[in-house]
Design goal:
The complex is a heterodimer of chains A (260) and B (143).
Chain A lengths: L2 H4 L18 H7 L6 H22 L4 H18 L2 H4 L7 H24 L10 H6 L10 H29 L3 H17 L6 H8 L4 H24 L5 H19 L1
Helix pairs in contact in A: 2-3, 3-4, 3-8, 4-6, 8-9, 8-11, 8-12, 9-11
Chain B lengths: L12 H4 L5 H13 L6 H6 L5 H17 L3 H22 L8 H12 L6 H16 L8
Helix pairs in contact in B: 2-4, 2-5, 4-5, 5-6, 5-7, 6-7
The chains are: A mainly alpha (260), B mainly alpha (143).
Chain lengths: 260, 143
Amino acid sequence: MNSENDQTQVNKSSNSSAGASQTNWKTIIDAASNSPTAGHSREGVARRYWPAIHAFVRKSGIPPAEADDVTQAFICDVMLGRDLLAHAAPERGRFRSLLLTSVRNFAIDELRKRKSLTRKPTNGKILSLDDDIRSGDRNADLNLDDPEHAFHTQWVTMMIDQAISVVRNWAIVNSQEVQWDIFNRRILEPMRTGAEPISTEAFMKQWSLTSSAQVANTLARMKRKFVAALMEQLGNYDEDPDMIHREVSMLLQTLERKTR
Amino acid sequence: MNTPEKTSALPLHWILQSDHSPSHTLINWLVQEIDPKATSPIDSLISSDTPIATLIGYKNAFKHLRLEGETLDDQSLGAIYYGLTIASSIVHHHRRISRQSNRALEEAFRKIWSDETIDLRLRDLAWRAFVLLRTAIKDSLPY
């Protein structure tokens, strides 16, 4: 671990938007470089992926009290220290897959270390974590399905938050507050908080609109803006449109599973 | 038509309805906004089960798109679907939901029918409306 990495203290409470808007392949590549802005980029990348990494660590069986430290260790030792970012490249595939594989391996190592400290040999043989998984041991600390789902859920949440931020900023800059309000209270808030969607009539009354067609068109137009923003987020990691579409499908399935 | 579905139950399904044409995507979403049970604009327009009130809702939304659409493609597609909705009401309900002149409607239907980029089922709808309008003119279709 180099000294610069040692100094990279990730504030998990500031992971939502700060530094996120600029994080894409360019930022990842910059973070892996020796450019003057590399330190800033590394900080941005670390903040951005903290929630997904932490979710995986937490669900993999690491005790809650230690999940922060393990996440911090992964970011400093693997992501930054072992130059994980330098191995990332657009042509090599999705950054999400690379990160997931790395954090999975890291978590397995961590759990192995912990097991070796706490578990005594049985009949002279030390059971490996793999044995636990293969034998379907329900007491095994690591259930690979749940941590991955937690990771993907955090990832899609990050993407959606970012897309929402882009659309909101667009609305502010272009004085489209009414459009934003209709989209937010009819689509976004119900999706995020379970709030009751506002009716077309209520919007018409509040904003003195003369026809329900205005509300319908506003919603359709804002949906299109949102999809464009989301696709741009995903396109920062993958330029193949079919791949992006598959990615969206996968992410939505993740969300759907979360809401069941 | 204005009672929204609880979107939290189906968080972002509408995203997957987006296709490679942003304007067609907009039409899909408009139709679903007006009738959440609608499966597609084409199905809704060619079905005789689509109520006249729903068609009027579509017509108003497409008219708005025709006039206020963000892009020329949006406006153009809005105009086509505006005409098709009127065609659907004539074919399936024997009612006119537009005050456009017969001549203007016939011209619009003929234009849709001859546009090979439009789905054949919709072109057929426009043709049937064109014929009905021509033949039923003396009986005067009720507005």
